[in-house]
Specification:
The complex is a heterodimer of chains A (221) and B (211).
Chain A (H helix, E strand, L loop, with lengths): L1 H12 L7 H17 L3 H22 L3 H8 L2 H7 L6 H30 L4 H28 L7 H27 L6 H29 L2
Helix pairs in contact in A: 1-6, 2-3, 2-6, 3-6, 3-7, 3-8, 6-7, 6-9, 7-8, 7-9, 8-9
Chain B lengths: L1 E11 L2 E11 L4 E5 L6 H9 L6 E7 L8 H4 E4 L11 H12 L6 H7 L15 H14 L4 E5 L7 H16 L3 E5 L9 E4 L1 H10 L4
Parallel strand pairs in B: 3-7, 3-8, 5-6, 6-7
Antiparallel strand pairs in B: 1-2, 1-4
Helix pairs in contact in B: 3-5, 4-5
Protein backbone atom coordinates (compact mmCIF):
# COMPACT_ATOMS: atom_id res chain seq x y z
CA UNK A 1 0.00 0.00 0.00
CA UNK A 2 2.87 2.32 0.82
CA UNK A 3 4.26 1.60 -2.66
CA UNK A 4 0.99 2.74 -4.24
CA UNK A 5 1.10 5.95 -2.20
CA UNK A 6 4.71 6.57 -3.17
CA UNK A 7 3.99 5.84 -6.84
CA UNK A 8 1.05 8.25 -7.01
CA UNK A 9 2.99 11.01 -5.25
CA UNK A 10 5.89 10.47 -7.65
CA UNK A 11 3.57 10.59 -10.67
CA UNK A 12 2.06 13.76 -9.29
CA UNK A 13 5.33 15.66 -9.14
CA UNK A 14 6.86 14.25 -12.33
CA UNK A 15 6.30 15.88 -15.70
CA UNK A 16 2.64 16.06 -16.64
CA UNK A 17 1.49 15.24 -13.14
CA UNK A 18 -0.14 18.59 -12.62
CA UNK A 19 0.62 19.00 -8.93
CA UNK A 20 0.93 22.75 -9.33
CA UNK A 21 -2.12 23.26 -11.57
CA UNK A 22 -4.41 23.52 -8.57
CA UNK A 23 -2.17 25.97 -6.73
CA UNK A 24 -1.85 28.21 -9.77
CA UNK A 25 -5.61 28.18 -10.29
CA UNK A 26 -6.09 28.94 -6.58
CA UNK A 27 -3.66 31.84 -6.87
CA UNK A 28 -5.44 33.14 -9.98
CA UNK A 29 -8.85 33.05 -8.30
CA UNK A 30 -7.72 34.76 -5.09
CA UNK A 31 -5.54 37.32 -6.85
CA UNK A 32 -8.41 38.53 -9.05
CA UNK A 33 -10.93 38.93 -6.21
CA UNK A 34 -9.44 42.19 -4.78
CA UNK A 35 -9.50 43.71 -8.27
CA UNK A 36 -13.12 42.75 -8.73
CA UNK A 37 -14.32 43.72 -5.28
CA UNK A 38 -12.34 46.94 -5.12
CA UNK A 39 -9.93 48.32 -2.51
CA UNK A 40 -12.35 48.08 0.41
CA UNK A 41 -10.02 46.47 2.95
CA UNK A 42 -12.75 45.90 5.52
CA UNK A 43 -14.96 44.11 3.02
CA UNK A 44 -12.03 42.01 1.79
CA UNK A 45 -11.09 40.85 5.25
CA UNK A 46 -14.72 40.07 6.00
CA UNK A 47 -15.22 37.86 2.93
CA UNK A 48 -11.65 36.50 3.08
CA UNK A 49 -12.29 33.10 4.72
CA UNK A 50 -15.24 32.39 2.43
CA UNK A 51 -13.28 33.32 -0.71
CA UNK A 52 -10.32 31.19 0.37
CA UNK A 53 -12.62 28.25 0.98
CA UNK A 54 -14.45 28.61 -2.34
CA UNK A 55 -11.14 29.00 -4.18
CA UNK A 56 -9.70 25.92 -2.49
CA UNK A 57 -12.88 23.94 -3.17
CA UNK A 58 -12.82 24.74 -6.89
CA UNK A 59 -9.08 24.04 -7.12
CA UNK A 60 -9.64 20.68 -5.42
CA UNK A 61 -12.14 19.70 -8.09
CA UNK A 62 -9.72 20.59 -10.86
CA UNK A 63 -7.49 17.52 -10.88
CA UNK A 64 -10.03 14.98 -9.69
CA UNK A 65 -10.92 13.59 -13.12
CA UNK A 66 -7.42 12.14 -13.51
CA UNK A 67 -7.64 10.24 -10.22
CA UNK A 68 -8.71 6.98 -11.86
CA UNK A 69 -8.77 7.90 -15.52
CA UNK A 70 -4.99 7.86 -15.92
CA UNK A 71 -4.90 4.38 -14.39
CA UNK A 72 -7.72 3.22 -16.60
CA UNK A 73 -6.08 4.42 -19.79
CA UNK A 74 -2.88 2.45 -19.27
CA UNK A 75 -4.57 -0.65 -17.88
CA UNK A 76 -3.33 -0.25 -14.30
CA UNK A 77 -6.87 0.09 -13.01
CA UNK A 78 -7.70 -3.48 -14.10
CA UNK A 79 -4.79 -4.78 -12.07
CA UNK A 80 -5.70 -2.67 -9.05
CA UNK A 81 -9.24 -4.08 -9.22
CA UNK A 82 -7.85 -7.61 -9.60
CA UNK A 83 -5.80 -7.13 -6.45
CA UNK A 84 -9.04 -6.93 -4.47
CA UNK A 85 -8.36 -10.16 -2.59
CA UNK A 86 -5.01 -8.96 -1.26
CA UNK A 87 -5.72 -5.27 -0.89
CA UNK A 88 -9.37 -4.49 -0.46
CA UNK A 89 -10.34 -2.18 -3.32
CA UNK A 90 -11.84 0.43 -0.99
CA UNK A 91 -8.50 0.60 0.82
CA UNK A 92 -6.65 0.96 -2.48
CA UNK A 93 -8.98 3.83 -3.36
CA UNK A 94 -8.42 5.40 0.08
CA UNK A 95 -4.66 5.27 -0.44
CA UNK A 96 -5.02 6.81 -3.89
CA UNK A 97 -7.19 9.56 -2.37
CA UNK A 98 -4.63 10.27 0.33
CA UNK A 99 -1.84 10.40 -2.24
CA UNK A 100 -3.92 12.73 -4.40
CA UNK A 101 -4.63 14.90 -1.38
CA UNK A 102 -1.01 15.02 -0.30
CA UNK A 103 0.18 15.73 -3.83
CA UNK A 104 -2.40 18.17 -5.14
CA UNK A 105 -4.46 19.54 -2.25
CA UNK A 106 -1.91 19.92 0.54
CA UNK A 107 -0.04 22.56 -1.53
CA UNK A 108 -3.33 24.54 -1.55
CA UNK A 109 -3.47 24.43 2.23
CA UNK A 110 0.14 25.55 2.41
CA UNK A 111 -0.53 28.39 -0.03
CA UNK A 112 -3.70 29.51 1.75
CA UNK A 113 -1.97 31.64 4.48
CA UNK A 114 -0.05 33.55 1.83
CA UNK A 115 -3.18 34.13 -0.21
CA UNK A 116 -4.95 35.18 2.98
CA UNK A 117 -2.65 38.22 3.04
CA UNK A 118 -4.13 39.22 -0.33
CA UNK A 119 -7.49 39.35 1.37
CA UNK A 120 -6.24 41.55 4.23
CA UNK A 121 -7.10 38.88 6.80
CA UNK A 122 -5.78 39.05 10.33
CA UNK A 123 -3.30 36.37 11.48
CA UNK A 124 -5.84 34.57 13.65
CA UNK A 125 -8.32 34.35 10.78
CA UNK A 126 -5.61 33.12 8.41
CA UNK A 127 -4.56 30.44 10.89
CA UNK A 128 -8.13 29.31 11.45
CA UNK A 129 -8.87 29.16 7.73
CA UNK A 130 -5.71 27.17 7.03
CA UNK A 131 -6.58 24.78 9.86
CA UNK A 132 -10.14 24.25 8.64
CA UNK A 133 -8.82 23.71 5.11
CA UNK A 134 -6.37 21.14 6.42
CA UNK A 135 -9.14 19.25 8.15
CA UNK A 136 -11.89 19.78 5.58
CA UNK A 137 -10.26 19.31 2.17
CA UNK A 138 -9.74 15.53 2.55
CA UNK A 139 -13.54 15.26 2.65
CA UNK A 140 -13.73 16.96 -0.75
CA UNK A 141 -11.20 14.51 -2.17
CA UNK A 142 -13.15 11.55 -0.76
CA UNK A 143 -16.44 12.74 -2.29
CA UNK A 144 -14.57 13.54 -5.48
CA UNK A 145 -13.21 10.00 -5.65
CA UNK A 146 -16.75 8.64 -5.79
CA UNK A 147 -17.58 11.08 -8.59
CA UNK A 148 -14.36 10.27 -10.42
CA UNK A 149 -15.10 6.54 -10.18
CA UNK A 150 -18.57 6.99 -11.64
CA UNK A 151 -17.27 9.07 -14.54
CA UNK A 152 -14.07 7.08 -15.10
CA UNK A 153 -15.17 5.75 -18.48
CA UNK A 154 -16.13 9.14 -19.88
CA UNK A 155 -13.44 10.78 -21.99
CA UNK A 156 -14.37 14.35 -20.93
CA UNK A 157 -15.59 13.58 -17.47
CA UNK A 158 -13.95 16.49 -15.69
CA UNK A 159 -16.86 18.89 -15.81
CA UNK A 160 -19.37 16.15 -15.08
CA UNK A 161 -17.43 15.18 -11.96
CA UNK A 162 -17.45 18.79 -10.77
CA UNK A 163 -21.19 19.06 -11.31
CA UNK A 164 -21.80 15.71 -9.57
CA UNK A 165 -19.54 16.49 -6.66
CA UNK A 166 -20.20 20.15 -6.00
CA UNK A 167 -23.62 19.78 -4.34
CA UNK A 168 -22.23 17.09 -2.02
CA UNK A 169 -19.38 19.32 -0.89
CA UNK A 170 -21.70 22.11 0.26
CA UNK A 171 -21.91 20.87 3.88
CA UNK A 172 -18.11 20.77 4.04
CA UNK A 173 -17.97 24.32 2.71
CA UNK A 174 -20.61 25.57 5.17
CA UNK A 175 -18.96 24.14 8.26
CA UNK A 176 -15.47 25.03 7.07
CA UNK A 177 -16.39 28.65 6.52
CA UNK A 178 -18.43 28.97 9.72
CA UNK A 179 -15.56 27.53 11.77
CA UNK A 180 -13.18 30.00 10.12
CA UNK A 181 -15.50 32.87 11.02
CA UNK A 182 -16.00 31.47 14.49
CA UNK A 183 -12.31 32.00 15.26
CA UNK A 184 -12.47 35.76 14.64
CA UNK A 185 -16.08 36.93 15.10
CA UNK A 186 -16.67 36.79 18.81
CA UNK A 187 -20.15 35.43 19.48
CA UNK A 188 -19.81 32.69 16.86
CA UNK A 189 -18.44 29.37 18.11
CA UNK A 190 -15.32 27.85 16.56
CA UNK A 191 -15.15 24.43 18.12
CA UNK A 192 -18.61 23.08 17.23
CA UNK A 193 -18.47 23.65 13.46
CA UNK A 194 -14.84 22.58 13.48
CA UNK A 195 -15.70 19.27 15.11
CA UNK A 196 -18.58 18.72 12.70
CA UNK A 197 -16.13 19.40 9.86
CA UNK A 198 -13.72 16.81 11.26
CA UNK A 199 -16.62 14.36 11.64
CA UNK A 200 -17.63 14.96 8.01
CA UNK A 201 -14.09 14.16 6.87
CA UNK A 202 -13.98 10.94 8.89
CA UNK A 203 -17.44 9.90 7.73
CA UNK A 204 -16.69 10.59 4.07
CA UNK A 205 -13.30 8.92 4.46
CA UNK A 206 -15.24 5.68 4.79
CA UNK A 207 -18.23 6.35 2.55
CA UNK A 208 -16.33 7.94 -0.36
CA UNK A 209 -13.73 5.19 -0.99
CA UNK A 210 -16.31 2.45 -0.38
CA UNK A 211 -18.71 3.84 -2.96
CA UNK A 212 -15.87 4.62 -5.36
CA UNK A 213 -14.71 1.00 -5.06
CA UNK A 214 -18.22 -0.20 -5.80
CA UNK A 215 -18.44 2.01 -8.88
CA UNK A 216 -15.02 0.89 -10.13
CA UNK A 217 -15.87 -2.78 -9.63
CA UNK A 218 -18.95 -2.50 -11.78
CA UNK A 219 -17.50 0.00 -14.19
CA UNK A 220 -14.82 -2.22 -15.74
CA UNK A 221 -15.46 -3.18 -19.31
CA UNK B 1 -5.08 -26.48 -8.31
CA UNK B 2 -7.54 -26.68 -11.17
CA UNK B 3 -9.33 -24.02 -13.18
CA UNK B 4 -12.74 -25.14 -14.34
CA UNK B 5 -15.16 -23.32 -16.62
CA UNK B 6 -18.55 -24.79 -17.36
CA UNK B 7 -20.97 -23.54 -19.93
CA UNK B 8 -19.61 -19.99 -19.76
CA UNK B 9 -21.44 -17.30 -21.63
CA UNK B 10 -20.39 -13.72 -22.14
CA UNK B 11 -22.08 -10.61 -23.40
CA UNK B 12 -21.08 -7.12 -24.41
CA UNK B 13 -23.60 -4.33 -24.39
CA UNK B 14 -26.49 -6.71 -23.75
CA UNK B 15 -25.74 -8.94 -26.76
CA UNK B 16 -24.40 -12.44 -26.33
CA UNK B 17 -20.87 -12.78 -27.72
CA UNK B 18 -20.38 -16.44 -26.93
CA UNK B 19 -21.98 -19.16 -24.88
CA UNK B 20 -21.41 -22.74 -23.87
CA UNK B 21 -17.66 -22.42 -23.39
CA UNK B 22 -16.22 -25.09 -21.14
CA UNK B 23 -12.71 -26.21 -20.25
CA UNK B 24 -10.65 -27.50 -17.37
CA UNK B 25 -7.04 -26.62 -16.81
CA UNK B 26 -4.64 -28.56 -14.60
CA UNK B 27 -1.24 -27.33 -13.38
CA UNK B 28 1.25 -27.39 -16.22
CA UNK B 29 -1.36 -26.99 -18.93
CA UNK B 30 -1.89 -24.14 -21.33
CA UNK B 31 -4.94 -23.17 -23.32
CA UNK B 32 -4.86 -21.15 -26.52
CA UNK B 33 -8.02 -19.21 -27.23
CA UNK B 34 -8.25 -18.56 -30.96
CA UNK B 35 -10.87 -17.28 -33.32
CA UNK B 36 -11.68 -14.39 -35.63
CA UNK B 37 -11.95 -10.78 -34.48
CA UNK B 38 -15.00 -10.16 -32.38
CA UNK B 39 -15.45 -13.77 -31.39
CA UNK B 40 -15.04 -12.90 -27.72
CA UNK B 41 -11.47 -13.92 -26.93
CA UNK B 42 -10.71 -10.84 -24.86
CA UNK B 43 -14.16 -10.93 -23.29
CA UNK B 44 -13.55 -14.54 -22.21
CA UNK B 45 -10.22 -13.60 -20.61
CA UNK B 46 -11.76 -10.65 -18.78
CA UNK B 47 -14.58 -12.87 -17.56
CA UNK B 48 -12.08 -15.42 -16.26
CA UNK B 49 -10.20 -12.66 -14.47
CA UNK B 50 -13.46 -11.41 -13.02
CA UNK B 51 -13.23 -7.99 -14.63
CA UNK B 52 -16.48 -8.60 -16.51
CA UNK B 53 -19.53 -10.35 -15.10
CA UNK B 54 -20.33 -13.65 -16.77
CA UNK B 55 -23.71 -13.95 -18.43
CA UNK B 56 -24.11 -17.60 -17.53
CA UNK B 57 -22.24 -20.69 -16.44
CA UNK B 58 -19.75 -21.45 -13.72
CA UNK B 59 -16.11 -20.60 -13.20
CA UNK B 60 -14.06 -21.76 -10.26
CA UNK B 61 -10.59 -22.45 -9.04
CA UNK B 62 -10.31 -25.68 -7.08
CA UNK B 63 -7.75 -26.30 -4.37
CA UNK B 64 -6.30 -22.82 -4.53
CA UNK B 65 -5.51 -22.92 -0.85
CA UNK B 66 -5.24 -19.88 1.39
CA UNK B 67 -2.94 -18.03 -0.97
CA UNK B 68 -5.27 -18.14 -3.93
CA UNK B 69 -8.89 -18.28 -2.77
CA UNK B 70 -10.29 -16.96 -6.07
CA UNK B 71 -9.39 -16.87 -9.74
CA UNK B 72 -8.68 -13.14 -9.52
CA UNK B 73 -6.17 -13.65 -6.73
CA UNK B 74 -4.39 -16.42 -8.63
CA UNK B 75 -4.00 -14.70 -11.96
CA UNK B 76 -1.74 -12.32 -13.77
CA UNK B 77 -3.73 -10.43 -16.37
CA UNK B 78 -1.72 -9.10 -19.30
CA UNK B 79 -4.19 -7.09 -21.33
CA UNK B 80 -3.81 -4.96 -24.41
CA UNK B 81 -2.41 -2.16 -22.32
CA UNK B 82 0.80 -2.65 -20.45
CA UNK B 83 -0.31 -1.12 -17.13
CA UNK B 84 2.92 0.86 -16.83
CA UNK B 85 3.34 4.56 -16.21
CA UNK B 86 5.20 6.44 -18.92
CA UNK B 87 6.52 9.06 -16.47
CA UNK B 88 8.21 6.46 -14.24
CA UNK B 89 11.29 4.46 -15.11
CA UNK B 90 10.97 0.82 -16.10
CA UNK B 91 12.50 -0.34 -12.83
CA UNK B 92 10.23 1.93 -10.77
CA UNK B 93 7.20 0.52 -12.57
CA UNK B 94 8.27 -3.06 -11.97
CA UNK B 95 9.21 -2.37 -8.36
CA UNK B 96 5.76 -0.92 -7.75
CA UNK B 97 3.96 -3.94 -9.17
CA UNK B 98 6.25 -6.30 -7.27
CA UNK B 99 5.49 -4.52 -4.00
CA UNK B 100 1.79 -4.26 -4.76
CA UNK B 101 1.26 -7.83 -5.96
CA UNK B 102 3.69 -9.55 -3.67
CA UNK B 103 7.19 -10.74 -4.33
CA UNK B 104 7.97 -13.46 -6.82
CA UNK B 105 10.92 -15.58 -7.76
CA UNK B 106 12.99 -12.98 -9.55
CA UNK B 107 14.05 -9.47 -8.67
CA UNK B 108 13.46 -6.48 -10.92
CA UNK B 109 16.90 -6.49 -12.57
CA UNK B 110 16.81 -10.24 -13.02
CA UNK B 111 13.36 -10.09 -14.64
CA UNK B 112 14.53 -7.39 -17.02
CA UNK B 113 17.54 -9.51 -17.96
CA UNK B 114 15.20 -12.42 -18.62
CA UNK B 115 13.16 -10.46 -21.16
CA UNK B 116 16.29 -9.00 -22.73
CA UNK B 117 15.97 -5.49 -21.32
CA UNK B 118 18.95 -5.66 -18.98
CA UNK B 119 20.58 -2.32 -18.33
CA UNK B 120 17.70 -0.07 -19.37
CA UNK B 121 15.77 -0.17 -16.12
CA UNK B 122 16.63 3.45 -15.42
CA UNK B 123 14.95 4.76 -18.61
CA UNK B 124 11.47 6.26 -18.42
CA UNK B 125 8.93 3.75 -19.67
CA UNK B 126 7.69 6.31 -22.20
CA UNK B 127 11.03 6.21 -24.05
CA UNK B 128 10.73 2.53 -24.95
CA UNK B 129 9.54 1.18 -28.29
CA UNK B 130 6.31 -0.80 -28.60
CA UNK B 131 8.08 -4.15 -28.46
CA UNK B 132 10.26 -3.12 -25.54
CA UNK B 133 7.17 -1.92 -23.65
CA UNK B 134 5.56 -5.30 -24.19
CA UNK B 135 8.66 -7.03 -22.93
CA UNK B 136 8.71 -4.82 -19.84
CA UNK B 137 5.07 -5.78 -19.26
CA UNK B 138 6.05 -9.44 -19.58
CA UNK B 139 8.76 -8.85 -16.97
CA UNK B 140 5.89 -7.80 -14.71
CA UNK B 141 4.65 -11.42 -14.82
CA UNK B 142 7.97 -12.56 -13.41
CA UNK B 143 8.45 -10.16 -10.50
CA UNK B 144 5.47 -11.52 -8.59
CA UNK B 145 4.26 -15.09 -8.56
CA UNK B 146 0.84 -16.09 -9.83
CA UNK B 147 0.00 -19.64 -10.93
CA UNK B 148 -2.41 -18.57 -13.66
CA UNK B 149 -1.37 -16.28 -16.51
CA UNK B 150 -4.14 -14.70 -18.56
CA UNK B 151 -2.52 -13.31 -21.67
CA UNK B 152 -4.35 -11.22 -24.22
CA UNK B 153 -2.37 -11.06 -27.48
CA UNK B 154 0.86 -11.31 -25.49
CA UNK B 155 3.17 -11.25 -28.49
CA UNK B 156 1.71 -8.16 -30.16
CA UNK B 157 4.66 -6.00 -31.19
CA UNK B 158 7.34 -8.55 -30.31
CA UNK B 159 10.09 -9.53 -32.77
CA UNK B 160 10.98 -13.14 -33.60
CA UNK B 161 13.74 -13.43 -31.01
CA UNK B 162 11.52 -12.01 -28.25
CA UNK B 163 8.68 -14.32 -29.28
CA UNK B 164 10.98 -17.32 -28.91
CA UNK B 165 12.23 -16.04 -25.56
CA UNK B 166 8.67 -15.54 -24.37
CA UNK B 167 7.72 -19.05 -25.53
CA UNK B 168 10.57 -20.30 -23.37
CA UNK B 169 9.26 -18.33 -20.40
CA UNK B 170 5.78 -19.74 -20.84
CA UNK B 171 7.09 -23.29 -21.12
CA UNK B 172 9.11 -22.74 -17.95
CA UNK B 173 6.04 -21.41 -16.19
CA UNK B 174 4.03 -24.49 -17.21
CA UNK B 175 6.80 -26.90 -16.22
CA UNK B 176 6.87 -25.24 -12.80
CA UNK B 177 3.17 -26.08 -12.43
CA UNK B 178 1.67 -22.88 -13.75
CA UNK B 179 -1.33 -22.49 -16.00
CA UNK B 180 -1.76 -20.25 -19.03
CA UNK B 181 -4.80 -19.07 -20.90
CA UNK B 182 -3.74 -17.03 -23.91
CA UNK B 183 -5.88 -15.34 -26.54
CA UNK B 184 -3.92 -15.05 -29.74
CA UNK B 185 -3.92 -15.02 -33.52
CA UNK B 186 -0.32 -16.10 -33.82
CA UNK B 187 1.15 -19.46 -32.84
CA UNK B 188 2.88 -18.97 -29.50
CA UNK B 189 5.26 -21.87 -29.83
CA UNK B 190 4.14 -23.75 -26.74
CA UNK B 191 2.34 -27.02 -26.22
CA UNK B 192 -1.26 -26.12 -25.60
CA UNK B 193 -4.81 -27.20 -26.10
CA UNK B 194 -6.83 -24.98 -28.40
CA UNK B 195 -10.22 -23.46 -27.83
CA UNK B 196 -11.79 -22.07 -30.98
CA UNK B 197 -14.26 -19.30 -30.25
CA UNK B 198 -15.65 -18.79 -33.75
CA UNK B 199 -18.09 -21.71 -33.93
CA UNK B 200 -20.12 -20.69 -30.92
CA UNK B 201 -20.49 -17.18 -32.29
CA UNK B 202 -21.59 -18.41 -35.70
CA UNK B 203 -24.17 -20.60 -34.06
CA UNK B 204 -25.50 -17.62 -32.14
CA UNK B 205 -25.64 -15.50 -35.26
CA UNK B 206 -27.51 -18.20 -37.14
CA UNK B 207 -30.08 -18.43 -34.41
CA UNK B 208 -30.53 -14.71 -34.78
CA UNK B 209 -29.79 -12.24 -32.06
CA UNK B 210 -32.56 -10.03 -30.74
CA UNK B 211 -32.38 -6.61 -32.33
Amino acid sequence: MWSLFARDIRLNIRAGGGALTGVIFFLAVIATIPFGVGPDLKLLSRIGPAILWIGALLSCLLGLDRLFQADREDGSLDLLVLGNDRHMLALTVLVKCLAHWAGSVLPLVVAAPLLGLFMNMEPLGIGATALTLLVGTPAITFIGAAGAAVAVALPRGGLLISVLVLPLTIPVLIFGVSASYGATADPDPFLQPFLILAALTLFLGVLGPASAALALRHGTD
Amino acid sequence: MRLIAEDLGGERGGEAVFSGIGFALDPGQALLVTGPNGSGKSTLLRIIAGLLPKAEGRLLLENGGDDFPSVASACHYLGHQNAMKTALSVAENLRFWRDFNGRGDSGVEEALETVGLGGIGHLPFGYLSTGQRRRAAIAKLLVSHRPLWLLDEPTAGLDKASEARFAGLMTKHCVAGGMIVAATHLPLGIEAAELRMGEATERLLQQGTPS
